[in-house]
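In this supplementary section we document a worked example of the pipeline. Step one takes a protein sequence of length 218 as its only input; no multiple sequence alignment statistics are reported here. Step two produces a three-dimensional model, which step three serialises into structure tokens for compact storage. The input and output of this example are shown verbatim.
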Amino acid sequence: MHGGGGNSASSDTPNDDAPAAERPKYGALNHRRRRIGAAPRFGSAHLRLTEAVLDRSTFCFPDSVFQPTAMATAARFDLFPLVERFDARELSDALEAAEGGLLDDYIEAHVHGTVDLAVDVEAVVLDPCFRGTPTEDQAGSLGVPLEWHEGRLLRVETLAAHPQFRGPHIVEVGRRAARNGVLDAATIGRAARTGEEDPQDLKKVWHHVARFGTPTER
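The serialised model returned by step three reads:
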């Protein structure tokens, strides 16, 4: 299971006033076995949780921000027909912008109780653009295995070919953030640290990278 922690949390929780320890931890079920994780729209890194966590998790489709009525547990699970109907739509940039698409096909997961790195996490999975960086060092210091997915890289000409996906303005933000005409997670991170771009705009640039980017490792 792909655990996103605060990265993938919806604002819709059972009790907004509950202590943090009692709130569910939001993630996604990686039933497609994607190396990049079940819900890359929320970031380039994820935690892969142990199978045992399934026993205290609930699931829904679509994302809980849409207030779905279809819920499940690992023992009583019938969400795949909904996912299959969602996947069967003929996609376009306009449709994905309005109704969701490949970045929105995840089954949302809610882990109830504490997520303990030492007990509940099989691996921290990073984008290879962070090899040899302080990010790798920090992840390696957590005391759990460190793994790498195939990465995502997007050229600005591909970004420019999809102005409807997140709007023409985001294409221009991506052009400014790119280095040598290329975007990846590290490039977007550097742009965020300068403070020169709206973080929400850069999040949408990442959506382009996650959706239309190609693997950096083949």
